[in-house]
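To: structure desk
From: M.T.
Subject: fold request, one chain
Message: Could you run this one when you get a chance? Sequence is below, nothing fancy, just the single chain.
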Amino acid sequence: QVQLVESGGGLVQPGGSLRLSCAASGSIFSIYHMGWYRQAPGKQRELVATIASSGLTNYDDSVKGRFTISRDNAKNTVYLEMNSLKPDDTAVYYCYCNIGTTRFSRSDYWGQGTQVTVSS
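Reply: Done. Structure tokens follow.
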């Protein structure tokens, strides 16, 4: 069994910064893609950023230059550094990991979500 535990959300003023963390634990053979998605009220869940096991990153255009995704493979943790936050960034942020629990079995796992609110 695999669990993802997120932390770091909260309330921040426009222009401020937050750092989200997501730690995976359990029966893990290997972690492949890791990433962050978000869902604002009344909207569909959307991709924010992903990072491959190679370190290759991908960002939605709306966050390029402001957000940075990184991972610590030794800690099975993915981070999202968010700078220059805007009210439009307000959403529940979900981490995502593609994890192999054995050499031949891979599945997608999601965190419980953490609220990020950008407001003055």
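Reply (cont.): The two ends are 41 Å apart (CA to CA). Let me know if you need anything else for the meeting.
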